[in-house]
Sequence to fold (207 residues):
Amino acid sequence: MTINHEKKLIFIHIPKNAGTSIIKAIGVENMYIDKSIKQYKEHYGDYWDKYKKFTVVREPIDRFISAYKFARMDESGWFSATGKENLRKHPHYKLCNEMNINEYISHLYKNSKKMITRWIYPQTFVISNENGEREIDYYVRYENLLEDLQKIGIDKIEKLNSSKIKDEKTIELTKKSKNILYEIYDIDYQNFSYIKDTKQIFSYQYL
Fold:
């Protein structure tokens, strides 16, 4: 569920931040995800001010890399490149399989208004209302997932919907790409106290 009446919790889902795992951990009763804060508020009107609203935030570049890998997957449970179970392709499937991550970032930057999808949308905007106010009571950090969830009564969680693809090449972001992502996600770095490391080269295996 995205609402848990026993624990008096409302889960606000930010894509690529362990949402599938959390939904399973607290049970599936009222699936209502990937909406605006206004829509959540209207849907859960009777409970909005009574229950604790929580979300998961993640280091922005780490989240972006996960989203890139997710877009490249042939089958993800949510999307299918072959039409399996009548699922559609991820909107950026073709693009991400044709471009390496640095080319993809450059393309997004040049065409940002048309290219930003909910999987790579700044996290701040997902949880903010039309006045720019964040309507969240408790933040779980992806990097401290289990411990932070335990503080609100969620004791067990299984890692699901992780971004895995066949290609085992290492993803390396250039300094230029990192700086573009730092610019795109500057608001997230500010709001969630993540630190920009301009010296580090991000290198991830497809695991």
Remarks:
- DSSP finds ten helices and six strands in the chain.
- Residues 60-72 form the longest helix (13 residues).
